[in-house]
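Possible race condition, two jobs.
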Amino acid sequence: MEEKKVLAVDLGASSGRVMLAAYDGTRIRVEELHRFSNDPVLLGGTMYWDFLRLFYEIKQGILKAKDFGPVESISVDTWGVDFGLLDKDGYLLENPVHYRDGRVSGMLEKSFELLDRERFYAITGNQFMEINTAFQVLYLSLHRRELLDRADSLLMMPDLFHYYLCGKKSWEYSAASTTQLLDARSRQWSKEVLDGLGVPSRLFGPVTDGGRKLGSLLPEICEELGVEPMQVVSGAGHDTQCALAAVPTQEKDFIFISCGTWCLFGTELEEPVIGEKSAALNIANEGGMGGRISFLKNIVGLWLIQESRRQWRREGREYGFGELEKLAGAEEPFRSLIDPDAPEFVPAGNLPRRIRAFCERTGQKVPQNEGQIVRCINESLALKYRLTLEGIQECTGKGYPIIHMVGGGTQSAQLCQFTANACHRPVCAGPVEATVYGNAVIQLMADGSIAGIEEGRRLIRASEDIRRYEPGEGERWEEAYEKYRRLLDTWRS
């Protein structure tokens, strides 16, 4: 068959890219057309996403695709929880606010004054995180009511980009499921939660499954760029679900880690798991393709390395990721450990200083150099994965003999090996470009070129080399895990 080409736009929390995916009937080939930074802008004390710049960069990617012949479709995936507000005429009321902005401080606790915590979780099945959409809109309800009153629609970030590409509003399931405003069982907006938080239900339309053609690229964009019309596809808007669609497995029950700025550790289920155990462990039920549920835990991930690296750059020391890993490999194992999800590690700024403060506060050796910091991060992440794995197994009653790890984190051989060691399971690592592959597969499904997710996963496995890491040093890592559990208990108390 003649190659079919689609554009996968993948926007992460620190960078974005427009990728060309070509399908020849047996394999999928991906090629980067355009890469750009995604830098938040601090203005008047508020941290915004630069939506206008991001939209400009997407158009530059479309422009570069002209050299490769006809393109069938385009789809955008992004991080979760953030959104834009449109007025009745379709104008963006303000740039979307960054989830790391300080406006959410205290909103989690405030929500429990308005909604019973247990009831809140029983409806939404979401992990309580202050960055979630629910707590962002609660802030607006309490402190910027006039903005909500002016708004006609609230669109999650992928839906917002799709709206300005084709003029059609949509509320795609995977992105909507990150809001903590959705009823996990009905898969529609919860009136009880919206009313409880004081959020107008008129801002939301019906939630629809991903993998739908919304319409053609707007004529004015085609004219501006000199391109032929292409379909705009509402795929899996949440990048985690794109990555999950690309996990190269044929197992029905599998465990995965989508490892990027955030690490999403979980499994795929037919129905949500909502009960005392999942509530106590604060595990999320998020929406995936075909109405499936991703039962997962959000863990602060490569952000710890990325932000530490930025701090060292500010101090005049530039390191590549490979160089940092080499430095870490030379340091003493388990010298110091952290909880990656401690609140002080969420904001931007001097992460190494905060890591040192955490270690000092918990009575550990304080990391003195870059190698010790990086080793501390990678060992702590691997041990947190082990803790999360045990929690998920406890909730589902299932065993998972292999861990499938996808995303940028698979480029760290150290993190992959540490994960295998900590969890006492082989780690199958790859593809690195899982989100892009998943995005492309869903577009090809919408077109009818691929029958379903299972076929897509087989194609991805045939298209990529998957690296396997065997577990080792079992006794040493078991001792470290017990030490880690005691550390977390001490810190939390």
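Job #2 (started ~2 s after job #1):
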Amino acid sequence: MEVQPVYDVINVCLDVIVALGQGYCLQYFLGSFLEGREKDRRINGLLVMVVYGVLRLGINFILPADNESIRTVGKITLMFVIIVLLALLFYKGVQAITAFLAITFMAVSEITFFLSYMLMQIGGNLFDLWVWLLEKGYIAVDTFEWIVQISATFLQIIFYGIFLVLLYFALRKIIRSFSDKDYRIQRTELYFLLVPGTVGLLVCLLLRTIMITIENDMPKLLCDRYPILSIIVPAILILSLLSILYVVKTFQNMIVLNREKNSWIILEKQIGSMQEHMEEMEHIYSGIRSMKHDMKNTLSVIMQLATGNEETGNAELQAYLSELNRTMERLEFQFRTGNTVVDTLLNMKYHEAVRTIPDMQMDADRLLFPDNLLIQSYDIGIILGNALDNAIEACRKLKGKESDAETFIRLSSFRKGKMIFIEITNSFDGNVIRKRQSEFPATDKADKEAHGIGLANIKSVAEKYHGGVDWSVDGKVFILSVMMKDERRTENEY
């Protein structure tokens, strides 16, 4: 049996396996950032893997074999087009991040390929051993051919194995470093992310062009001609790969810092606004209560006079006065928690909510605060204000989807030792958007960056009092729990 046909078959099989392996890594990479069009992620990933594998193999047949430079550039260009098309066809919401994903995947693929190739050059000494044994007569010529082909196949399998393993783990590192995958990348940020990948890709393109030279009509590796390149080239490749990982990690840190900065800005504004209006609100509602008390006395006298004049048929006056009395009754606080700031906030939020959700029920009977509470009132106001905003928005969204749905918000609190527990329960549509690597549910509103900071601010205030925040879902009921230690804190402790 001839050796070459067997070797050719093995090579074809290895090419197919490697192409499918790269396809698997590609679908894993894209699927971690983009939402697949198929409901079943496994089916979507399988389609991407197979289509990529087929197209990857097909490129070798359409590119000219007589011009290596054109072949190399054409291959890189076509691979970029294929990856972008696969992202468009099999994934939703393709944005600027698609360019980053395509360039980064290609760069990492090329870098890991050359790193694996350079590592396998060490295995070239094995062939020198077989030649030495042949020259010494220890092995026959026929046996030598088989041994060489088997060794070549073995080294090729190891080479492709190292390549795919390095590719997979490098991509996984990028995926884990880039935790905010829903972040909308701006144009300048995209340029920042693309620089290391583009540079790495260009380096690999250069290596493909100059790595093999022709001397005396025989191919020869550039590293054999200049042995120092066996050290320099891997070092450049490793630095290129590390630069990609570093830029991704740095960019993620920038996202986190900017989000925290925005959160702090909003939190400081909320604190300032709460402090500025606290006395004003107390003064206004105190005046309303005083006015209500005086007016009730006046109305009582007028109604008695109107009743005594019934013989003259002054029923219209009585009706008017009764309605005026009911209006004054509505001026009274509907919610009483023992904290003036909280009472004011609850009443304001309730009246704001019923304008758009008339039948919404709001229950705060179990939300009580002691007179000697050490937690500052505006901190509680920030917690309840943000929580109520989210709850009202959830009820409004539910009502928009189901007009006959029951909408409610229930607030309660209790004390256990030095700890104060606050619980806000509200109805919602039951759809929880779980954000990757985030402790809070994500929003589906258009302004994703601004929305969602409310929960982060609640957490910041709770942590100020050595507490924390937790949330859970029971069917179509969302439950937010806040725990704080009842002690006095200062503003600079934020």
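Residues 446-451 have pLDDT under 50 and may be disordered.
Logs attached separately.
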